Amino acid sequence: MGATGSKLEKTLGEQFPEGERYFGLENFGNTCYCNSVLQALYFCVPFREQLLKYYDNKKSVVEADENLLTCLADLFSKICSQKKKTGIVSPRRFVQRVKKENELFRSYMHQDAHEFLNFLLNELVDILEKECNNAKSSPEGLSSLDKVANGSDNSLANGVKKEPLVTWVHKSFQGILTNETRCLRCETVSARDETFFDLSLDIEQNSSITSCLKNFSSTETLNAEDKFFCNKCCSLQEAQKRMKIKKPPNVLVMHLKRFKYVEQLGRNKKLSYRVVFPLELKLNNTMEDSDIEYSLFSVVVHVGSGPNHGHYVSLVKSHNHWLFYDDEHVEIIDESTMQTFFGSAQEYSSHTDHGYILFYESHTSTS
């Protein structure tokens, strides 16, 4: 531990960011799926800051029962309050809580990092919403817990909620998609909005995130057995359907669908396709009138040739440096190394380290 720590500190020297901590996480037997996602979230600075603010407020409000949110806040607080700049922290309490809350993660089998991320964000939101709802019965607790959940005022008027609760987790990760369907007979467009915490993208060989997003928003024709019931025509009609991003999130998380069920094999197969992900990204193909720009700050990488075994590591950007996190091990890497995680141009390759979950932060999200 000391050698790794001192090596990283020596490499950065005087460039070591003031107040920052670079700590590996202990692995408790196939918990790399959890460690890699935790590192990505830790270096999502707006999320980390809100979580630590929650932790401070929570301590001053009431003695809270332990849950996944308090365990995560405790872990992040433990990392950032370390006296040393580098080293290893044990996330034992958090991992035990994950296993207690969800039986899917109780075994020592290989788990899916994307499933874990989804479970974690939704669980955090549920906890915050419950805390805010419970506070209704306590006039004193309402104002303080409301701040804890929201980070801003979303108060109740005469006991009636004015709008759906928007927690600080929503403020970081939630975007809105619009599903538009145009009837080809009467040209009526019907639109349905839905929220998302991440986008799952189909991938193709030798493609890019930009082309994946373009395909995500491409127009699909509904005909034959897939005709659309048009309310204006009062009958089934041919229609065109497309998905667009209506409101982009501050933190855009994209999951590359690298695991695909192959009927001939009767099982899932890993797609090692080469998918280029840029360091800077615009959403021109999926949004109208969008000048929003995103910067890549983390990548969860799946290492291995199949879906049911392998390993997860994460790449994170912190203060203009890229770091490689592999459980307990942390090292600095050159930005040019990022392209080695795009995937393989040939189907059979000895290189199995492929970008799986991408985290982009909007240039305005810190404001």
Describe the structure in your own words.
This protein has 367 residues and is of the alpha+beta class. Helix content is 30%, strand content 30%. It has nine helices and 22 strands. The strands form seven sheets. Strands 7, 13, 17, 18, 19, 20, 21 and 22 form an eight-stranded mixed sheet that branches. The chain has a four-stranded antiparallel sheet with strand order 6-5-12-9, with no helix packed on it. α3 runs antiparallel to α7 and α6 packs antiparallel against α7. The longest helix is centred in the middle third of the chain and has 22 residues, at 113-134. The radius of gyration is 22 Å and the shape is globular.
Helix and strand arrangement:
Elements: H1 2-12, E1 22-25, H2 32-42, H3 45-61, H4 68-80, E2 86-89, H5 92-101, H6 113-134, H7 139-150, E3 156-157, E4 160-161, H8 168-173, E5 175-183, E6 189-196, E7 199-201, E8 207-208, H9 209-216, E9 220-222, E10 228-230, E11 235-237, E12 239-247, E13 251-256, E14 259-262, E15 267-270, E16 275-276, E17 280-282, E18 293-303, E19 311-318, E20 321-326, E21 329-333, E22 353-362
Parallel strand pairs: 1-2, 7-13, 8-16
Antiparallel strand pairs: 3-4, 5-6, 5-12, 9-12, 10-11, 13-22, 14-15, 17-18, 18-19, 18-22, 19-20, 20-21
Helix pairs in contact: 2-6, 3-4, 3-7, 4-5, 6-7
